[in-house]
Design goal:
Low-confidence stretches of chain C: none
Order of helices and strands of chain A: HHHEHEEHH
Chains: A mainly alpha, B mainly alpha, C mainly alpha
Number of domains of chain A: 2
Oligomer: heterotrimer
Order of helices and strands of chain C: HHH
Shape of chain C: flat
Mean pLDDT of chain C: 89
Number of helices of chain C: 3
Number of helices of chain A: 6
Distance between the termini of chain C: 48 Å
Distance between the termini of chain A: 19 Å
Number of strands of chain C: 0
Radius of gyration of chain A: 20 Å
Strand content of chain C: under 5%
Radius of gyration of chain C: 15 Å
Largest sheet of chain C: none
Shape of chain A: elongated
Largest interface: B-C, 52 and 46 residues
Number of domains of chain C: 1
Helix content of chain C: over 70%
Chain lengths: 171, 124, 85
Amino acid sequence: MKSLTIGEKISRFLINWFFLTIVWIAFTTTFATQELLTGIFVTALISFFTIPLFTCCTLKILAPKRVFYMLYYLIVFTRELIKSNLDVARRVLTPSLPINPGIVEFKSNLKTDYSKMVLANSITLTPGTLSIDIIGDTFYIHWIDVKTTDPEKAYTEIAETFEKILLKIFD
Amino acid sequence: MTIYQTIGGILILIGAVFLFLGGLGIYRMPDIYNRLQAGTKATTLGAMSLILGVGVVKMEDDWTWMVKMAIIVIFIAFSNPISSHALARAMYHRKKYPYIKDNKEGMDAYRKVMEKEEERKKKK
Amino acid sequence: MVTIFYITIVLIALGMIFAIIRFIKGPTAGDRTVALDTMTTLMVALLVLLSAVFDRIIYVDVALIYGVLGFIGVIVVARYLEGAL
């Protein structure tokens, strides 16, 4: 793992602290003073000791443009999730089981590990695809109804819509 | 019935139907990867929809329900794909190759990677 | 509202029965773990529904902890099957 500069460390610490405090308030569901003070202290301690582990993002992620694209990603993702469920329902309920499974590969343009993780999770929840492994830039996807085994066509078919938005959020 | 109860009830029923389909999919599909596909997708949306429905029904009296439901929904949306991905990878490493119709060539792009890795292990 | 709760519980129970059949039949350990994973998610949904039926918000925490432990269990079994443990 490459060593971090002091600026990156502080930025990462602050963003982790911010998110953990939000989670604390959501768990306790109260704004009483003693609860808030305990929460702020405990979350500061946790985020200080996990600086090398939580590599998700720095303070840049809170820029308005990125937040807007996050909300847009959420809408696109919800639409794909509902589509994929109707697809699964159709396949399960048809008596003859219309499937043609196989494994395809494609290359992705994402740089950071965290964005690759988000893309793999999204692919798992979209119609007919399940991510099996990521080696470097290459994704291996189990596809329930293989339309093409060509990597570039598979990329346009599976990942393009998500990746365009993820590039704007994380890079 | 108030408006909250109507919307929440519809969400709960949709969730229940998808959860049932998830169980049925696990039973009907031919091999482990297809079972994972049916199980993960259907139960994820089913559980999310049902839990949000409960939150909407209870939101009329108490807003804290909705916050807790939101935590569970976010947790399910992150954890379900990760566990299914870990299982699929583990089963491939145990040489349970996927079911492919008519044994066509070139449908399994991951296999050549696995074979290379096997050779590297043998050399050691 | 009570009717909706009854219908939901029956549907979830039917799904659970199919998952249990797969859990008993499943030819390999992987199939059994897939069934276990599905059963965990079904159980989380059922626990949340029961907390709404009994109208106690504290029961929701039980569902959350059950979800976390089931997730960790599935990950541990998967790592073991892979040969990494």
